[in-house]
């Protein structure tokens, strides 16, 4: 089965998720710059989640570049990933509206962790489908980033009820780590895939 | 007439439906885990409908794989299916917000039944267009799942004013039945369609 | 310039318009079938606009099938059409929420009329670009439906403050007329375009 | 890496942004034409932003026509542009709801300026990737429009607390300037790219 509709559907869902998040930013009723200032926490949480969704879209894009066919397991693993990503506007909005309160940082971290696990399951499903000599397995290699980020999410979750600053810092750190593009896969693509 | 735009449009609509459902989950105003607990019924109804929409997308994907051209009847049968699917966020939100009250389970079942009927009409329209020796007709075969699921929806509708648990169980059972991927069509694709 | 992105963008916008209309249907707070009954006018207005958007998508699909390249004028004529279509959720919601009050029928008709004019402008832009021997000009022919429907919209607009039933009937009649698929263009496609 | 998914994702996000803006137009509760009149400022702000988003989609479309491959920097520059564009529904809604108050014109101009800067960064990223003899660099040439428009935005921002009419006029003027299609790139496409 081809991967085109999988890509198209995923792009559609990711485009909608990333865009409807902005709907969580309620337009203030007063036309003053002070009123805009009160939206700042929501805006910051929006920026963070926008970057996370950008990272997922980017990595998803790279990963599917190394895939030529999909099966039912991969389709459902992909939907499973999209499910957790689709909850990000909710957890982001809750976190921003409540000025990064402990419980909201806790839930946001849980959401990020579930996304990471779902991404890992999808990656393993593709590698299993590709079998021995999987291009993706080779490209992913030891997957250091993929192993560090859940640890950072867990640290953020653990820190949420202790120090909100520390908790937020772990989530920002994980995003920064991923912003560095995944040269491994870009490298593999350059070697294995005719453009 | 080609099927590409039909697929693209359907993917777009399904991606939007599946994503805007999350907008029905209103962000609670208190930053406590207890407040999140109150969203749980809405969350559970969202999970169920997400799975149903995933099933429809999956089956739609498989079915159109066996289609090479479409006509006006197929275009409108497809829009008819999308219409009933687009009502799912409404019936899902109503059901979740009212903690699976009898009337909401009743309406949700009606909605699922209409989706199933619309899917059946679309399938028949494609088979009729393909004529004798239709690949889809061969792949669908006796369509046992397609015959069992409306019965389950009817049982769920009938049970809704008697036992909410039983009603919900029928809807969950139908979803579980479909989650097992449609090997028949995957099998046909492997045999008949050059990848 | 190719037409692919034009089609993709139009499909995206139409898919979103058709889907977000359902967001205008506010979930009632009481879990009773009577509460659902109160949503009926909104539901009926939604059905009508869903059919209109389906008609536009269908005709747009057929028309672009006869187009091989586009220019800046066509791109902007297309955006102009999408603009008026994007207002349909607003005018539909207003009409449904106010039980088809005179002013809402008036505005709905204006919106339909603007969509029809914008579609005509787009069609003329494509015909002009194709030049003498335009396939689209040949397919559209005398464009009887395209000439009758604005008359029906005008009648509906004129009747809105006199009889709400008559006004609504004109809008329903125009939709019914279009539901009959555009055989002219399907015919041309079958003759001129290799599938 | 191919540009197809970049185009598809950008089209999706732009289609959603342009469409959800209409959700900012709240349906008035009274069924009178006077009630509709009160929506007029929101409507006008919506028209202006619709045109801006159309311009961006159009220019983006033209620009990517001259691109054959993308890298990580281009992907992220594109997401950066989409980020600022995704804020337009928010700033537009705030401006319309508050009848073009000074602070709202100020913020709207800031948003337009950020979009322009992000577009410039994306353009430079592509030119850098294409290297010496870049088709895009040649097509863009001295980029007079791209240099005038930020000046107009800055004038609009500066004028916002002095004269709301002048401020709005600068934003309208910049949009009008861009509405004239970008013949330079169309010209290059006609010369360099096989259709």
Automatic annotation (TrEMBL), chains A, B, C, D:
Tell me the superkingdom of the source. Bacteria
Q: Which InterPro entries match?
A: TMEM175-like
Subcellular localization, as worded in the UniProt entry: Membrane
- UniProt catalytic activity: K(+)(in) = K(+)(out)
| A GO MF term | proton channel activity
Give the stretches traversing the membrane.
12-29, 35-58, 70-88, 100-122, 151-180
Give the UniProt keywords, A-Z: Ion channel, Ion transport, Membrane, Potassium, Potassium channel, Potassium transport, Transmembrane, Transmembrane helix, Transport
Predominantly, its location class is: membrane
Q: Name one GO cellular component term.
A: membrane
UniProt membrane topology term: Multi-pass membrane protein
* Family per similarity comment: Belongs to the TMEM175 family.
Listed name of the protein: Putative membrane protein
Q: Which organism is it from?
A: Eoetvoesiella caeni
């Amino acid at each position: 089965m081809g991967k085109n509709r999988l890509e198209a559907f995923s792009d559609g869902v990711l485009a909608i998720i990333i865009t409807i998040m902005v709907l969580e930013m309620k337009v203030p009723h007063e036309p003053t710059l002070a009123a805009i200032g009160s939206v700042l926490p929501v805006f910051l949480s929006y920026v963070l989640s926008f970057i996370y969704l950008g990272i997922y879209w980017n990595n998803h894009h790279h990963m599917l570049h190394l895939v030529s066919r999909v099966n039912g397991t991969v389709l459902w693993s992909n939907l499973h990933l999209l499910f957790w990503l689709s909850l990000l506007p909710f957890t982001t909005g809750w976190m921003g509206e409540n000025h990064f309160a402990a419980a909201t940082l806790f839930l946001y971290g849980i959401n990020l962790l579930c996304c990471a696990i779902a991404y890992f399951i999808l990656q393993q499903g593709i590698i299993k489908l590709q079998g021995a000599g999987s291009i993706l397995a080779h490209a992913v290699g030891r997957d250091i980033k993929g192993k560090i980020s859940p640890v950072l999410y867990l640290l953020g979750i653990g820190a949420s009820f202790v120090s909100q600053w520390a908790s937020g810092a772990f989530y920002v750190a994980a995003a920064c780590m991923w912003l560095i593009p995944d040269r491994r896969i870009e490298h593999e693509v350059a070697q294995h895939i005719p453009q």
